Design the sequence.
């Protein structure tokens, strides 16, 4: 336990509203789960890295339920239909019925796959999320996006499926590798850059505390990130307009992940470089001034994140990778660019030359 | 063309309402599609049996769209995640974006798989259904159920996803094998048995016209079946209560399909035998009188449908197969039984002995 107290945030989605509980040590108490699990059968889905660290804590807290477990291999390269099928196998072998609950214990990959399994098992069952990485605590906690990758594109198969509850335990971040902590900070920084300049300034002042895993700073940053994201998502649950702002850095970032092979760059690392590329392109177009571009690059670098695309991907290949992205509407590539820090905009109104220059490493 | 005129039925689901258009020759006219397809990209999914018969008609009617096609192998045994994946492959290889439309041309298997592909491709795209079997015209036209089978259970993976439009062309039934026409009639009869005794009586009087594929009789039977189903579904879109009535014969029927191996019995055949079993069990419990039980068996037999379970499945195996059925709620097996023709009820309140006697061939 630490001095930080736990916080509770409601994501307001009408009859699919749910709480996000944020704090140290909360995965280990029965209290955290009891209002959100309404079935006897609970399938805990985790991976081989997280299981030895936290599975016992969760199982202890779930005494009294009929709990089964699936332990997946760890890594983005396993976010496939085939591995998803092993969750269905476990559910059916254990004869879980349509009133059951799936609980995801792990990072974004575990959460996305478990969420999609919950969305599609018997056409939809309950889902509780226990994210154990900073990235998943601030990203997949809000929005209801679930899914798996396809060899031809990331997150191409999936569904919107809201959890019944999210339990974000900051103590689980103590075992997170440095590189993954940094990757999570990329998304945290993203919320500041999109539309919350005062949060961006707070991050500039507190980035060292976050890197030192100060509980209080983490609870604050996670809550504020989730709140920023929830405001955008509530306005636009199915991603027609406003929500696309959350893709800042993602069109570039997905091209990096896909071009390097899933798992070589972490998602957050690719998003960091993608955000820096969006800032660069915005600067070239005269939307962003040099000072703001530098503040973005500098904060990302202080968080130990990459700010340039990998040299391995040629400019030509980069553009090719970008054209299969989900954000392509009727063949027209839309990008999230910056009018300033805290002033992101979705646009297809840019010079092709600015894009070409940005992807030319 | 025939003397029968086409009919239009609205399925009322708020902002997901859609029309069912029923009539001879309607798949071949651009008019049928034009208000329902709002994208340029259209992926037609069909199978190797239907493609040589009707694909050209549909492609002609869709001139002006960017149309691609996927031709699946034909059969319930191909309703798998693996074959589903070939639809994603085609979509991604053709660079279809999230504004695209998937059009299912074929029977229930093609419709269920294409619908689930549409529900899950990029987390949901438009879906138009062109059912070419009687079963799919009266069953999958209404309800939004989509999905694939798993080796351990039928339709265990799926989603609710409403079509933008259903185009049920009675001319396509002219090429339907006798056995499949009969299988479709099983579901038609089911609607009468559940809650529409006057339709049941109409069927007793007109079963020969339907077997002779009289267009006018078919349009009437399809429209009335869809209407009966739509009333139940509109009251209960996500299958909590009322909608379970539609599973009349299905708990027994799924056990038959699964026990014999998918594809050995047609779905409609299994449902016919399952309905006769439900009637038998209802009779044993004193819910249904002998005369009514006989009328149900007799109508099914006149439609060339089986009324007894296959001898290959032992009573013990039958019960085992039933216990993994989706309709098992917290381990309690609920069945749809009959208080009379047109008076179906969902219940878990029955003597185990009646169930055991029913499955004992």
Sequence:
């Amino acid at each position: 336990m630490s001095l930080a107290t736990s916080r509770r945030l409601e994501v307001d989605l009408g009859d699919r509203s749910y709480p996000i509980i944020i704090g140290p040590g909360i995965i280990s108490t029965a209290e955290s789960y009891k209002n959100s699990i309404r079935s006897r059968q609970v399938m805990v889905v985790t991976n081989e890295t997280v299981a030895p660290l936290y599975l016992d804590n969760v199982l202890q807290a779930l005494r009294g339920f009929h709990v089964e477990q699936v332990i997946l291999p760890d890594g983005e390269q396993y976010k496939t239909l085939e591995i998803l099928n092993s969750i269905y196998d476990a559910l059916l072998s254990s004869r879980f019925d349509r009133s059951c609950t799936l609980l995801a214990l792990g990072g974004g990959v575990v959460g996305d796959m478990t969420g999609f399994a919950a969305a599609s098992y018997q056409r939809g069952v309950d889902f509780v999320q226990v994210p154990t990485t900073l990235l998943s605590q601030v990203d997949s906690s809000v929005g209801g996006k679930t899914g798996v990758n396809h060899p031809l594109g990331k997150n191409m198969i999936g569904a919107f499926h809201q959890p019944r509850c999210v339990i974000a335990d900051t103590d689980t971040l103590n075992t997170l590798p440095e590189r993954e902590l940094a990757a999570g900070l990329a998304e945290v920084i993203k919320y500041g850059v999109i539309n919350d300049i005062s949060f961006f300034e707070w991050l500039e002042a507190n980035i060292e505390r976050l890197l030192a895993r100060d509980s209080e700073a983490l609870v604050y940053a996670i809550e504020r990130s989730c709140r920023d994201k929830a405001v955008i998502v509530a306005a636009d649950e199915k991603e027609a307009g406003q929500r696309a702002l959350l893709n800042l850095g993602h069109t570039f970032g997905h091209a990096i992940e896909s071009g390097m092979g899933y798992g070589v760059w972490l998602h957050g690392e690719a998003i960091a470089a993608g955000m820096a590329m969006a800032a660069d392109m915005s600067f070239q177009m005269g939307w962003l001034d040099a000072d703001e571009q530098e503040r973005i690059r500098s904060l990302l670098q202080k968080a130990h994140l990459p700010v340039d695309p990998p040299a391995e991907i040629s400019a030509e290949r980069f553009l090719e990778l970008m054209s299969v992205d989900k954000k392509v509407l009727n063949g027209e590539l839309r990008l999230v660019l910056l009018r300033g820090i805290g002033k992101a905009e979705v646009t297809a109104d840019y010079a092709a030359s600015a894009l070409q220059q940005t992807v030319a490493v």
Notes: The first strand of chain B starts at residue 7 and ends at 11. DSSP finds 13 helices and 13 strands in chain B.
